[in-house]
Input
Amino acid sequence: MMGKYTFIEQTLEDLRKQGLYNTIRTIESSVGAWVIVEGKRVLNMCSNNYLGFANDKRLCTAAKDAIDRYGVGPGAVRSIAGTMSLHIELEKKLAAFKGTEAALSVQSGLNTNLATIPLLMGKEDIIFTDELNHASIIDGCRLTKAKRAIFPHRDVDGLRALLKENQDIAKKLIVTDGVFSMDGDLAPLPGIVEAAEQYGAIVMVDDAHGEGVLGSHGRGIVDHYGLHGRVDIEAGTMSKAFGVVGGYVAGSSELVEYLRQRARPFLFSSAATPPDVAACIAAVDILQETDAPVKKLWENAEYFKSEMNNLGFDTGHSETPITPVMLGEAKTAWDFSKRLFDEEIFATAIAFPTVPKGKARIRVMLSAAHSKDDLDFALGKFAKVGRELGVI
Ligand SMILES: *Cc1c(COP(=O)(O)O)cnc(C)c1O
Output
């Protein structure tokens, strides 16, 4: 007789056989340029800690002070008894930072999409979505009964054709990642906005990898392209460049008020904790005041990428500090990553199904926390392993 868990055992077995079983490494220190992974000190080249805020003293102090004053938990969902003055302060500061009328704090970037998309779109409506959009956007779309029109990656003409075909549907939403996380390429937002304006569509951008990275002081992709006031909804995360955890939606006062009244992750899941929110406020305060960490991040990214190219590595077509080191077959990428780990570099391989077959890679994430010595150390190791494996 088949046990009730046989299907799980079989799936796990299949993953092992296909070489897709993910062994997750354990970090035993704070997340900085260097981390302790399973007892070993290694250079961290795979976190989304773009600005080095994950263990920044100013954020840590803000979190500790918040615990002393507010304790560790919000005690309830925000709409019943969980909204603290800290949440309101973060929302005001985020709106000012983004240049929008209002912002709403939710628990994660994933939740921004689950909060927003189902609230806007019903079964009479249509969502236009880039084929490479993040899983949380896809899940947000799945929570609606709206029709879906998937447009080819970054293809404004393809989007226009679909808009035209569906122009009789009254309510239209175009949703896209701002920065695509596997290749580091940007959404063609100016073209998307123009098409949206022509066809009367709402535009939403998920700026998870653009926050703290693009635009003046890291204000994100809308600022980068100078599209203030022309993008209806900006969704963001506090878990990448901001170094903490949490998410927010920024836009018009009406939109944010609507979310406050009706968004399910807001109404049915407890608020972000006081230390998290306080650390997020500290991160926004720092970026309001200075763009030094953003500049350092870009300097590091440009140096590392150009040196990797000089060594003969293919770093794809990234336009951001996300640096894919293209290796082809999954096995090469896994072997490369293991050899790098032996050499004190922590950089994970990414293969199918996260990226297409034959496009396996090591995705290097640069950070303002890296020193030039760190980058030179990494370049030496990449060169060594690259030659060893016949990649360069
Ligand atoms: C990482 C990411 C998220 C999820 O953010 P969390 O705060 O970790 O939940 C959502 N959307 C995009 C585009 C992302 O890259």
